[in-house]
Amino acid sequence: MLDSRSQLHDYVQHNSNRGDIQNIIDTIDKFGWTKQWLMNIGDQKGKILDEAIQTRKPKTILELGTFLGYSALRMIRLLPKDALLISVDCDSESAEIARSIFEYAGVTDRIKPIVDYTNNVIPHLNKDFNVDSFDLIFIDHSKDLYLRDFKMLEDVGLIKSGTMIIADNVIYPGAPDYLEYVQNNPNYSTTLRESTREYDDNVRDAVAISVRK
C-alpha cells in the first residue's frame, strides 16, 4: 500500500498540469483537504507565507523542512528568476518526491535542495552558496529543532538586520521554546499570525513572523 507521500506524487501527476505551478499547488491542497492530511503549511497559512514573501521581496531564501516541496513551490512562484532558494530536509524519500514535483513544475533550476541534517548544513551555507546572510528564512521542520537551528543561524551570521524569519506550527504541535525566545528577544520584532492547522479547521495554530532589527 502506498504511503501518503507516494499517493500525493501520483495524484499530482494525474490531476494537475505540468509546468503550471499554481495549478500544482491547488492540486496538492485538494489532496490535503479531500484525500489525506499533509503536514505542509497548507493553503490557509500559506497565504500568510505569501504575504511575507511579497512584503520582504527576498533574493536569498532558506527553507528548513522541504517535505514534498509544497512551500518551496509557494515561495518560488512569487520570487524573481535570480532569487536563491535553498531547501533542506534530512528525509531522502520525501526529498526524492519533492525533486520529482519540482521537475514536473519546471522549477528544478530555481530550487537548491539539500538532503542532510540541518546541523550539518547550516555551518557551511555561507561558503557553499556564497551567502552573507538570508533575506528570509522559513522554518517548518522538526519543532524541537526550531530554537537550536535558529541560534545556529545566528551564530554563523546568516541572520542580519532585516532578515525575516517565518516559523510554522508554533501553536500546534507547537514550538514553545522557540516562541518564547523570539517574542522576548529585543533584537527581533515578532508578530503572531493566528490561523488553524493545515487542512483542519478545528485546531488552532499560528505562524510566527520575526524580523531582525
TrEMBL record:
It is an enzyme of class 2 (transferase). Gene3D superfamilies: Vaccinia Virus protein VP39 (3.40.50.150). The keyword S-adenosyl-L-methionine applies. Its EC number is 2.1.1.6. One of its GO terms (biological process) is methylation. Keywords: Catecholamine metabolism, Methyltransferase, Neurotransmitter degradation, S-adenosyl-L-methionine, Transferase. It holds the Pfam family Methyltransf_3. Transmembrane segments: none annotated. InterPro entries: SAM-dependent_MTases_sf, SAM_O-MeTrfase. One of its GO terms (molecular function) is catechol O-methyltransferase activity. The keyword Hydrolase does not apply. Belongs to the class I-like SAM-binding methyltransferase superfamily. Cation-dependent O-methyltransferase family. This is catechol O-methyltransferase. It comes from Adineta steineri.
